[in-house]
Amino acid sequence: MGKDLYRSGIETPLSKKTLKFISSLIEDLWIVEEDIIGTEVHNIMLFEQKILNNEDIKQILIALEIIKEKSATNGLELDENFEDIHPFIEKSVIDNIGIEMGGKMHTGRSRNDQISVDLRLKIRKELNF
Is 108 left (phi over 0), alpha (psi -120 to 50) or beta? Predict the structure, then answer.
């Protein structure tokens, strides 16, 4: 997995037992599409604010769509070393297009914002709102 995106200051990796206890990766599969949609919209905003350039936005959106398609066809190969779906998606994008572009994907966005947007989108979808 490499260095944990949210614990980069901690030198010791989580034990397998701890990771298994705190992981919500499988449970988060129900919000994969919403997480990707929220991330796409956030990146469009970054592009409109000139934080991302044409190539950045193009590559990020393509990488996110690949993940969305894999998820829709049950072709998403999860890595149990991830705590939840958010860093898994981010790392998948970075692995696909590189840290130079993929590392910009969540500029100005907190993890709490990601989760809040995901849940709101999912609830609206479930309620046919």
Answer: left
